[in-house]
Specification:
By secondary structure, the first copy, chain A, is of the alpha/beta class. Helix content of chain A is 41%, strand content 14%. The first copy, chain A, is built from twelve helices and 15 strands. A seven-stranded mixed β-sheet of chain A has the order 2-10-9-8-7-3-4, sandwiched between helices. A four-stranded antiparallel β-sheet of chain A has the order 11-12-15-14. The longest helix of chain A is centred in the last third of the chain and has 26 residues.
Chain lengths: 392, 392
């Protein structure tokens, strides 16, 4: 028998466990938060890897490398952020093994056992897992259709003394909501006034389907850590993210990352740098927006005939998700087996809550299915919801 | 001003900081533990990446993937381990972002604040950093020219109640020492008797230049976690390692890894699986052995004329390192600037100690320089040591 009793208590992600169940090809899955693989720039990335593995630089790109990350990649990402209104240099950035790693590094650097983290409700469940695994206490801030309410955050700050506020302010996971400019300013001001950090997790910001971009919270604030990712605009398989932080904290995060994995894949970073320099990423993202916009539209159009009267949903300006609230008394966890029996999948909303879950909620992702498949999947979901007593 | 005061105390790796100083091309560096880039199979790996990014599987290889790792890669690694005498299936393995990540995952899963870790003395310094960053207390076990002394481990177990023993039993970093078979059996028996884990970190085991392989501690023991790596036999830039563990712990480690980075690079894993299936890795490793053997021989041959009378050194059967102990009173940290002024670099031994450092020790790596460069570098080191008062 191997040693027992000393293993810490950890729980798996229900989304990932569910994904394992929805891999049957006949299932139309609205469950996973995946980008559409048919839209990956496979040819462009193949050429970038080929160049990264050619002489003379190919051998350097297979070797150990600095923890901070590939210098060219950091400069290119910084230039892109600067172009979007967030002035950044390569020295302000740490390349991470996906933005999930950035979350874990920030958690390791800033949160000891007993630390308090304030989050919007509901929020990204892998962030909740990450904070809880570190022994932090997660407290919820009241949120409405525009995201976190600054007045509620101020009350939570005074009552709970959090050391960190976690936000997905643009096209949030799971709700698709976007925090308006005036709330961003107010939350950054609260962070400065009360000397705490804000983590601005921004994997979806470039996937906007209507309206104008809103400045990140990090603009003009040295209390905001800004997290970005190649996963939704390029491809997630490279596991490339980046973290923008003030110099003092960046030094600490580099040391924490050194212990975590020494550095992110040298070859993936080099290929991404070559790709960013050579490809027209804006044109590629414009193509993603066009495709995803029509998928979102198909899902929104189907929702009235899919759900029972009294159901509400978000109508996101971008990103990947629609958040649905069925009439009171519904239980989306209980209804999931019925949906799977109808060959359609979603994620029940409960795990996204830090405190008391609303069992009537569910998350739908519209990115990986064509409009026609979405229409078909929503028809299946209508049947499943209509025939399941737990949603009545 | 960004928030202050809440950042945890962390310290950087002296080896990595030093590497930054030794990148001047005129320096002959024996400091870094790097594999020789001219021996990378650049062509084979380029072909593997090309195939991994071709239709039809290319799009899957850019997508999110299961945390456990690429199934084909796990099977190929398992078959290789089985062939070397450690019966393993793909289900026994977790793919990690380098074996450094495996160390951090094990630390997160098993060690809380106040936990005790027993190590050989001196030992791999990034392991020491990792355990300390988690708040564990590191205790040293007496070690001689054959590595950890089992009788001393038993005393330490009774006195200190460690929950984990960390070892690099084959061609250790930094000493090059190898733990004999009878000590391996004794240490595995102690782990079973006292219900604790042994981490067997084995990045160098295939780089043997003389003698016969010794069975891993993990053979026949469910108390041993075996860590392997692609870094020294393939290339470190892919950040690919693997961890073999009993099922119960593996489940926990998968959840901890999910929070750490979701999964290791999909494309790097796929390319490595294609490479392992297509290439003759044994022939490639035979080539590494031939080259590294002659480099080790050049370093060992130069040592008598490089060092003052009374100096001792290890004569490793494999791996990358020779460990040198100068006469009592020498201070290799103090002598390093003199060495750098002579355009030669090494790593002072002090940071590799968990407890009281021996300031007269230093680590030399022989892998990245040709025999001729090693002879030249050792002549420079002789001048530096001869001309520096701190080594007298």
């Amino acid at each position: 028998m191997p040693p027992t009793g000393s293993t810490k208590h950890v729980t798996s992600s229900p989304v990932r466990d569910l994904l394992a169940l929805t891999s049957r090809p006949e299932v139309i899955s609205f469950a996973g938060g995946l980008p559409a693989p048919e839209l990956f720039d496979l040819t462009g990335l193949r050429m970038a890897f080929h160049q990264a593995l050619s002489e003379p630089a190919g051998r350097d790109n297979l070797q150990y490398a600095p923890t901070e990350g590939n210098r060219a990649l950091r400069s290119l990402v910084a230039a892109r952020m600067t172009g979007k209104g967030l002035p950044t240099t390569g020295d302000d950035l740490l390349i991470t093994t996906g933005s999930q790693q950035a979350l874990t590094l920030v958690t390791s650097a800033l949160l000891g056992p007993g630390a308090v983290v304030a989050v919007e409700e509901p929020t990204y469940l892998a962030a909740l897992q990450c904070f809880r695994m570190a022994g932090a206490r997660v407290v919820a801030v009241a949120s409405d259709e525009h995201g976190m309410v600054p007045e509620s955050l101020e009350e939570v700050i005074k009552a709970e003394r959090p050391s960190l506020v976690y936000l997905v302010p643009t096209f949030a996971n799971p709700t698709g909501r976007t925090l308006p400019a005036e709330r961003r300013t107010a939350i950054a001001a609260l962070a400065a006034a009360h000397d705490l950090w804000v983590v601005e997790d921004d994997p979806y910001g470039e996937l906007r389907y209507r309206g104008e971009p809103i400045a990140p919270l990090a603009v003009g604030s040295d209390h905001v850590l800004h997290l970005g990712s190649f996963s939704k605009i390029g491809a997630p398989g490279l596991r490339l993210g980046w973290l923008r932080a003030p110099e003092s904290l960046l030094r600490t995060l580099v040391i924490v990352k050194q212990a975590a994995d020494l550095h992110t894949s040298t070859i993936d970073q080099a290929a991404a740098a070559i790709y960013l320099a050579a490809a027209d990423l804006d044109a590629h993202i414009a193509g993603l927006r066009t495709a995803y916009r029509s998928r979102r539209d198909a899902m929104i159009a189907a929702l009235p005939s899919t759900t029972p009267p009294g159901t509400t949903w978000t109508d996101p300006d971008g990103g990947m998700f629609v958040w649905v609230t069925l009439p009171e008394g519904a239980n989306t966890t209980g209804a999931l087996p019925t949906a799977l029996a109808h060959d359609v999948a979603y994620v029940p909303g409960a795990p996204f809550y830090a405190t008391t879950p609303d069992q009537a909620t569910l998350r739908l992702s519209f990115t990986t299915n064509t409009p026609a498949r979405i229409t078909e999947g929503m028809a299946r979901l209508a049947e499943a919801l209509g025939g399941d007593r737990s949603v009545r």
